[in-house]
């Protein structure tokens, strides 16, 4: 860092910069060499290099180079007005030099800095994008209540021609989906699916529906419709695995981000099982009565008829293996009634703010306002368990964990100080099963 001294000559309004030990581009400057910048009323500043031994020699040289000898500066008393005038004259001189008479090559003169005097911060021309919807459209998109016809009007039901030709009549379809749009699609598989026509998209970050252009998107529920005998055949030869996989893959190609779920409608499932059960009864009677003709088989000898138990078992295994739901219906009209009801459920699903599909099978849930009332309400789920009895139990076992420990360790909840059972015998038996059983299939109540 060079050592600099800046001196103001109050009589000539000159700024003198005396610099020593300042390296130059051409090489190291002599330690005793000084650089002088003189600013005055002349058009351009003058920079001269002095080779004097000290700063006093430089000042003496400056006094000798003036046209007229100037007297030694007089000491003046401090005056705020004079100080202000001197400061203003310096600023005016520097700003005039910077704006009008600045050097052509600023790199050679470090004193000139036009940016500090002439530039000003640019105002940003960026404006936040204006919303493409009105406040009324936003209110309509987020209204709390919606009519059934309005919800069904958003839905498009796509039914493959395979299903229509085998199970449904066109008049029945139009009557069932009078408020929705029905589209016939050509498909090799008997599928039914849904699309939704929306003018608002859901923003999960703000928990709002934002108005948008009319758009269609596919719902994540897919239905495959078979009659019972055909479904059993597809399960036995494992072709149903391929069908489900292809149906889901085709839907994911249209909407890769969605996780699709398949429901299999089975037409005439109960009737099919009843028919097999009747055949089993006939064969049983034939064996008992010794009349083989009563139990004659309708198929070639060597083929094994699946029993009702076999069919129910493979159906359950298929639901678990493929992660699908198999739903039986009696006929096509019952299937249309179910599909209409399910369409309404799908239509209102995205607008239900408190929907919890994972808890949909719990039934009625009773909760308490505190730990005590929650315990009492939980115990009242047992038959014949009244609120006073539950509160009495709470006095002896203040928590479900204490009850679990007692029943697993001693097998009984015991008696109170008067020798009476803390809970009635019927309630005690049910609680013992609930808190001690390791079998998930064991029922709490028999009969």
Walkthrough of the structure:
With 447 residues, the protein is of the alpha/beta class. The chain has three domains: 3-116, no CATH class; 135-353, Rossmann fold; 371-436. 41% of the residues lie in helices and 18% in strands. The chain has helices at 55-65, 80-99, 114-118, 135-141, 148-153, 161-167, 170-176, 228-236, 239-254, 269-289, 308-322, 332-349, 371-379, 387-396, 400-410, 425-436; strands spanning 3-9, 14-20, 34-38, 46-50, 155-160, 181-185, 191-203, 208-227, 261-267, 325-329. A six-stranded mixed beta sheet has the order 6-5-7-8-9-10, sandwiched between helices. Strand 7 (191-203) and strand 8 (208-227) form a beta hairpin. Helix 13 packs across helix 14 (387-396). The longest helix has 21 residues, at 269-289. It is flat, with a radius of gyration of 47 Å. The relative contact order is 0.06. Residues 1-53, 87-103, 106-125 and 356-361 have low confidence and may be disordered.
Key features?
two-stranded antiparallel sheet, disordered N terminus, 447 residues, alpha/beta, 6-stranded mixed β-sheet, Rossmann fold
């Amino acid at each position: 860092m060079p050592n600099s001294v800046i001196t103001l000559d109050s009589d000539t309004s000159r700024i003198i910069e005396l610099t020593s030990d300042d390296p130059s581009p051409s090489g190291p400057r002599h330690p005793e060499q000084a650089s002088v910048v003189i600013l005055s009323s002349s058009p351009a500043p003058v920079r001269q290099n002095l080779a004097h031994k000290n700063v006093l020699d430089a000042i003496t040289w400056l006094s000798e180079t003036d046209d007229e000898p100037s007297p030694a500066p007089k000491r003046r008393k401090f005056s705020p007005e004079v100080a202000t005038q001197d400061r203003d004259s310096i600023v005016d001189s520097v700003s005039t030099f910077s704006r009008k008479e600045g050097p052509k090559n600023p790199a050679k003169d470090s004193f000139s800095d036009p940016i500090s005097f002439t530039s000003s911060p640019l105002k940003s021309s960026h404006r936040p994008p204006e919303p493409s919807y009105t406040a009324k459209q936003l209110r309509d998109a987020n209204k709390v209540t919606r009519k059934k016809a309005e919800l069904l009007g958003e839905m498009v039901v796509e039914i493959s021609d395979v299903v229509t030709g085998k199970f449904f009549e066109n008049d029945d379809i139009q009557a069932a989906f009078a408020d929705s749009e029905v589209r016939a699609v050509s498909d090799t598989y008997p599928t039914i699916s849904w699309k939704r026509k929306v003018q608002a998209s859901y923003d999960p970050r703000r928990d709002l529906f934002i108005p948008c252009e009319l758009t269609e998107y596919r719902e994540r529920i897919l239905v495959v419709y078979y009659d019972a005998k055909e479904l059993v055949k597809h399960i036995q030869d494992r072709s149903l695995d391929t069908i489900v996989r292809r149906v889901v893959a085709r839907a994911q190609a249209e909407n890769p981000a969605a996780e699709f779920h398949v429901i299999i409608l089975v037409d005439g499932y109960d009737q099919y099982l009843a028919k097999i059960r009747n055949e089993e009864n006939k064969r049983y009677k034939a064996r008992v009565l010794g009349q083989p003709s009563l139990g004659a088989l309708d198929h070639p000898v060597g083929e094994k008829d699946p029993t009702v138990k076999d069919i129910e078992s493979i159906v359950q295994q298929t639901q678990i293996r493929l992660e699908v739901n198999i739903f039986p219906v009696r006929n096509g009209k019952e299937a249309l009634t179910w599909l209409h009801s399910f369409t309404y459920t799908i239509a209102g699903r995205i607008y239900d703010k408190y929907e919890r599909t994972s808890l949909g099978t719990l039934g009625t849930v009773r909760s308490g306002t505190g730990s005590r009332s929650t315990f009492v309400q939980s115990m009242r789920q047992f038959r014949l368990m009244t609120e006073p009895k539950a509160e009495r139990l709470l006095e002896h076992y203040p928590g479900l964990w204490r009850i679990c420990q007692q029943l697993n360790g001693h097998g009984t909840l015991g008696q109170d100080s008067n020798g009476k059972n803390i809970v009635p015998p019927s309630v005690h038996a049910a609680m013992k099963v609930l808190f001690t059983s390791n079998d998930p299939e064991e029922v709490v109540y028999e009969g």
